[in-house]
Design goal:
Elements: H1 3-27, H2 33-36, H3 39-56, H4 62-90, H5 94-102, H6 113-149
Helix pairs in contact: 1-3, 1-4, 3-4, 3-6, 4-6
Protein name: DUF4199 domain-containing protein
Keywords: Membrane, Transmembrane, Transmembrane helix
Organism: Flavobacterium caeni
């Protein structure tokens, strides 16, 4: 497990998600909730890069790979939430958040910026766990085969 690799791939996830959401915003599609789920593919790409590189370096252990994958995706998630917080503040704070949350999973209501970001943190943590686990299931047989050959 190399933290620089996890940090690099976490930043790749952050940049990918940022670019994706900027494109959605400029295309006028940011209110389409189903398009927001495609960011999972960006997360999966970054996590897969980490697992693949760890495997190529001969790093062993399911739990080690899983932890590395989880750290990678959470770095991307935390950076993305921080950038969203800055974006909301730049666009008017609570007034912009009202418009944003009406079109989002939370379904509107009286949300503060802190509640919104904490909700996103829980959501991204769950998504990170799911993506990391699914990719580990994919890589599990490949990692075990390499371990048995050596």
């Amino acid at each position: 497990m190399k933290f620089t690799r996890e940090l690099t791939n976490g930043i790749i996830i952050f940049l990918g998600i940022g670019i994706y959401f900027i494109i959605l915003e400029f295309a006028g599609l940011s209110d389409q909730v189903y398009l927001r789920f495609f960011n999972l593919l960006i997360v999966a790409y970054g996590v897969n890069r980490t697992i693949k590189a760890n495997q190529a370096d001969g790093i062993r252990g399911y739990n080690t790979h899983f932890l590395s994958a989880l750290i990678t995706s959470m770095i991307g998630a935390v950076l993305s939430i921080a950038a969203l917080l800055a974006y909301i503040a730049y666009n008017g704070g609570e007034a912009y958040l009202k418009n944003l949350s009406d079109n989002f999973i939370f379904g509107g209501g009286e949300l503060t910026i802190n509640h919104y970001c904490i909700g996103l943190l829980f959501e991204s943590t769950a998504a990170s766990l799911i993506v990391s686990f699914c990719l580990m299931q994919y890589w599990k047989d490949k990692v075990e085969v390499i371990n048995k050959v050596d």
